[in-house]
Write a structure and sequence with these properties.
The protein has about 80 residues and is α/β, with parallel strands linked by helices. The protein is about 30% helix and about 25% strand. It has 2 helices and 5 strands, in the order E-H-E-H-E-E-E. It has helices at about 25-40, 50-60, and strands at about 15-20, 45-50, 65-70, 70, 75. The chain starts with 16 loop residues before the first strand and ends with a strand.
Amino acid sequence: MWPFEVGGVHGRNDSMICILNIEHLQADGERNQLEASKKFPQNQFTRVDTLEALIEALQALAPDVILAEYELPPCDGVE
């Protein structure tokens, strides 16, 4: 059970979950999307692969879940 409720944010309906994936490798991002779709068939999945795209996505979306890899060139999970 997920510890949050999926809400209607930014025009999404209540059954839609917004997932933001921070992943610089396309194949890994596609695998993440496939696995997320198994649990949440109704999802808005967005993958970003740069720090600039991450900042834009955070400003534009209200993600319910953020899947983040530890290293996103040129920064890492600590920065």
